[in-house]
Design goal:
Structural class: mainly alpha
CATH superfamily: Sodium:dicarboxylate symporter
Shape: globular
Helix content: over 70%
Distance between the termini: 19 Å
Radius of gyration: 22 Å
Bound molecules: aspartic acid
Number of strands: 0
CATH class: Mainly Alpha
Length: 433
């Protein structure tokens, strides 16, 4: 296959074309054309991905569990998954705290820029505060209660309920293993066929991925540029060191933590892993949503990296909901950046509180665009940094959201490889011979 026909290049070309189209539409003043005629293509593309996510998780997880033939394997896999997810998150936050303390981007933010940012984004942060207050009002163990759905149909009618969907698929799979084979055969055959159908639909959706990505990026750029490109460039320049510190942290995290994971227990070279997962990273970058990218992440991890279905269909949906390495790292950097900018020195114990709260906040962050900044409120409140400080970083949040989402997805995929390898469930994949 010529290089430009591979999915990774197709998506990348869509991304670059979208970027150029977005810039041209601002310069030539046809933003409303882009918003009215181009943006809907991106929305349709994201909706199609969302549409297949729940059937894909249900069918592939049920089929995967019935293939496992042994429930103890499932609980062992669950324990490992959660344990490694927690560990990588804590490493991510530690790396975030290290880079932000070393480079201190908040200290170089000019005072006038700080005051101007406070003023212009003041109103935008009320929504974030309300949403975070709602989360804080809940019982701290509510998130465990929420895993168990009170109604089957209600839970499968909302993609935000991914953990409930995983829970149901697991108990249906377990029950199917415990009834006579002549009865289970019919249902397993049904889910097996449904699984194949959904996988085929994902392949079809990927054919329009370059156009979807083009439209998504074009509309993000016109949104960002607004009516005043000069002001946007000024904003980007003012927050450049903050943005670069977040991005440097993300790159460090990927190259230190995931590479060490693979050395320790992955049975895979980092370079091969990246080759296999690249299209999902690009899609995560373009959609800013781990949940919307989930169907492609599952596809790549199984087909190209050789992770068996029973591992991928459990580890990845759980990861898309609770494992956000990129988000937790960003939350740590953002909290300290805001503190530096408003002249608060955070002590070591306060920074340890950031490790704890950013871990919890990233678990509570939904895999959708902009969710990370809402949960940042909780981290800020825990260390008594004024929540209004979010105004300082709001203007560049979308760009950083794209970067952290790509890392969130990479983290989920890396853990699926490690769990599969440790369980003897890492087979042959195109990039894993
Ligand atoms: N957009 C991120 C994700 O979907 C969450 C965040 O806002 O950090 O993974």
């Amino acid at each position: 296959m010529p290089w430009y026909k591979t999915l990774h290049w197709q998506i990348l070309l869509g991304l670059i074309a979208g970027l150029l189209f977005g810039i041209i539409s601002i310069l030539a003043g046809f933003q409303s054309f882009t918003e009215i005629f181009v943006a809907p293509v991106g929305t349709i593309f994201i909706r199609m991905l969302q549409l297949v996510a729940i059937p894909l998780v249900i069918a592939s997880l049920i089929v995967g569990i019935t293939n496992l033939n042994d429930i103890t394997k499932l609980s062992r896999m669950g324990g490992k998954t959660i344990g490694i997810y927690m560990m990588t998150t804590v490493f991510a936050i530690t790396i975030g705290l290290t880079v932000v303390n070393v480079f201190q981007p908040g200290k170089v933010l000019p005072e006038e820029t700080r005051d101007a940012l406070f003023l212009s984004y003041k109103e935008n942060i009320e929504g974030q505060e309300d949403a975070a207050a709602e989360v804080l009002d809940r019982n701290p163990l509510q998130f465990i209660v929420d895993i168990v759905p009170p109604n089957f149909f209600a839970s499968i009618s909302d993609n935000a309920n991914m953990l409930q969907v995983v829970f149901m698929a697991v108990i249906i799979g377990i029950a199917l293993m415990r009834i006579p084979e002549d009865k289970s055969r019919l249902l397993i055959g049904f889910f097996d066929a449904l699984n194949d159908v959904v996988i085929k639909i994902v392949e079809l959706i990927m054919k329009i991925a370059p156009y979807g990505v083009f439209a998504l990026i074009a509309s993000v750029i016109t949104d960002l540029g607004g009516d005043d490109l000069g002001a946007t460039i000024e904003l980007l320049r003012a927050l450049l060191s903050y943005g670069l510190v977040v991005i440097a942290g993300l790159i460090l995290h990927m190259s230190i933590v995931y590479t060490s994971l693979f050395k320790w227990y992955g049975n895979m070279k980092m370079i091969n892993f990246l080759k296999g997962i690249r299209p999902a990273q690009l899609l995560g970058f373009s959609t800013s949503s781990s949940l919307a990218t989930l169907p492609l992440t599952m596809n790549r991890v199984e087909k190209k990296l050789g992770v068996h279905e029973e591992v991928a269909s459990f580890v990845l949906p759980v990861g898309a909901t609770i494992n956000m390495d990129g988000t937790s790292l960003y939350q740590a950097v953002a909290a300290v950046f805001i503190a530096q900018a408003v002249g608060i020195d955070l002590s070591l114990s306060q920074q340890l509180i950031i490790v704890l709260t950013a871990t919890l906040a990233s678990i509570g962050t939904a895999g959708v665009p902009g969710a990370g900044i809402i949960m940042l409120v909780i981290v800020l409140q825990a260390v008594e940094v004024p929540v209004e400080g979010i105004a300082l970083i709001l203007g560049v949040d979308r760009i950083l959201d794209m970067c952290r989402t790509a890392v969130n997805i990479t983290g989920d995929a890396a853990v699926s490889v490690v769990v599969a390898s440790s369980e003897g469930k890492l087979g042959e994949g195109a990039y894993n011979e």
